[in-house]
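=== RUN LOG ===
request id: a7f3
mode: sequence -> structure
chains: 1
length: 354
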Amino acid sequence: MLVKTFGSAVYGVEAITITIEVNWMETSTGYMIVGLPDNAVKESLQRVESTIKSIGKTMPRTRIVVNMAPADIKKSGTAFDLPIAVGILAADAQFSNSEAIKDYVIMGELSLDGIIRPIKGALPISIQARKEGFKGLIVPSANAKEAGMVNNLNVYGVDHINEVIQFFESGEQSLQPVKIDTREEFFNSQYDFEIDFADVKGQENIKRALEIAAAGGHNAILIGPPGAGKTMLAKRLPTILPPLSLQEALETTKIHSVAGKLPENSTLVSKRPFRSPHHTISDVALVGGGGIPQPGEISLAHNGVLFLDELPEFKRTVLEVMRQPMEERRVTISRAKVAIDFPASFMLLASMNP
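=== RESULT ===
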């Protein structure tokens, strides 16, 4: 029996819906995943088999083929465990009402006992699911609040695979969608700072300079002897920047979600980010990249402040790669088969000794 479930792959800060087709044949035995999966996806069959046995179900002793379409896009990560497991059980007719599966995007990493672990990129996945007209999204409970920021889409948080099976068998009555008041979540935490620019006593000249820089979005460099307060002032700069708009908060949250930098059970990034990389950072870590391109520090500082402490200690190549992103307010990571854009609109603040 052929069954289709739906997942999502994140590229840059956008998501692409992936159709996971599961079919079994009685002619032989063995399991196979096709559609350009990486090693983490290939290993999912071992986790899925252990999970299915742990919940009292049986892994089919036939040949199982799992196809991840479109087949020309590389699939990576462990978040496809849950849709593959649900597809295998549905293909083997081990739970009823499998027709409802086609209305939902399902994502989650499985542990060996069926517990569902958090994933990266829940917000862009949720945005794409709404755009394509899916009825709902099933994600780990730790990601439910983040994904629930998207309206007109039912988002269900689950902790165990049994909850997903029961959800489809009971006609969607066993779980309640997450309810998030976006504006309340966003505006209530905008001004909740641990440190504040108002804490600084004296230093009137530099405070005035940073106020002008903050008002105009200008870059700034602080030059002074050790202990003069350069780093202390820099850390407090985001507290006098204009608050994020809701659109800016969504952009910033998508980047942090893809990078796996959002805390569990968090919703939106409501305060302007402040990133302070160490001077030993590599150029790839600063602008982004890797085999599967990930956002770098300049993208994590999008809509916020990038602080380079001890500026002369940074390698020349690291500073050189920042030229174009600072002009264009975005960075393009190019690979043989794909080019990914990450936003990088930040305020640059640097410090150095005389």
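=== NOTES ===
The first strand starts at residue 3 and ends at 11.
The chain has two domains: 3-169, 185-352.
=== END ===
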